[in-house]
Amino acid sequence: MKEIGVGIAITGSGSATPANVLDNQALCQMVETSEEWIESRTGIQTRRVASGEESLTELATQAAFKAVAMSGLQPTDLDLIVLATSTADDLFGSASKIQANLGATRAVAFDLTAACSGFLFGFVTAAQFIRTGVYKNVLVIGADLLSRWVDWGDRRTCILFGDGAGAVVMQANTTRDRLLGFELCSDGSQNDCLTLAFQPQEKALTPNLSVGQGTYQFIQMNGKEVYRFAVKRVPEVIEKALYRADIEVDRVDWLLLHQANQRILDAVAVRLKIPTHKVLGNLANYGNTSAASIPIALDEAVREGKIKPGDVIAAAGFGAGLTWGSAIFEWG
């Protein structure tokens, strides 16, 4: 293992989801589909959806408090907060509001947007601040409320998405670097495969001048292309991250993928020859929670006692952009 002056330790996790549960039976009353059709094609049985009174900031704050408590730190010990989200409560960002809610008065806070890859991109970004010695205690949050932007009459997308938030605390560690390797990728030529796009409408200000004002449209997705992309690129990027970590795949204790579709999870595991019992997943209960899916699944596995200190985790995120990436790390 490569040793460096300042390494990373992942010392706390937390998660939070809305109270409202939307199951497949209820969806069948909203769109023309069946419970068998949904579960056989996605693996999803239920998902959580935020009410109008719930906010992304509220859920993210709950997850953050739990992660900080597990780490043994106080919010005032935090130097940096990175919020990975595509659905901030405020278009200017929600990280600073979370900072205030936590009472993390010393922390710099900013939003990062990379859709379903967002948490992993935020995780790697935070690690660079620690490795350079700039910050010692960093909170990384992945949170999304995609129910706000789902067309509930479109069965191709409304069956997939749920809401939630997850968080981890990363700390400087001078004895061992727990982030073993990573690889991040983007391909904007496939951007139109998965979008939540702004639709401008011309508004005349003067007879000779107009501006484009409008709103964001519902999520649009080419499911077949996203599936092809994921089953090809995700195993590749995990293999590259493992190469950078200088470890073999049989040393991986847990495969932790973005919870998008059970068929994708299964295909990636088969490609990497990772047995089913090593694949972490909660897709059936929460659906695709975008940037929140990896940290929610991680937190549940830690609190259930599945993941032990020192376990090697191969994590991978993938989604709109198109973006994808992998990080190989040890828990604890």
UniProtKB/TrEMBL annotation:
This is Beta-ketoacyl-[acyl-carrier-protein] synthase III. The lineage of its organism: Bacteria, Bacillati, Cyanobacteriota, Cyanophyceae, Oscillatoriophycideae. Its main location: cytoplasm. Residues 244-331 form the Beta-ketoacyl-[acyl-carrier-protein] synthase III C-terminal domain. Its EC number is 2.3.1.180. Residues 259-263 are annotated as: ACP-binding. Residues 110-188 form the Beta-ketoacyl-[acyl-carrier-protein] synthase III N-terminal domain. Keywords: Acyltransferase, Cytoplasm, Fatty acid biosynthesis, Fatty acid metabolism, Lipid biosynthesis, Lipid metabolism, Multifunctional enzyme, Transferase. InterPro entries: ACP_syn_III_C, ACP_syn_III_N, FabH, Thiolase-like. Belongs to the thiolase-like superfamily. FabH family. GO terms for biological process: fatty acid biosynthetic process.
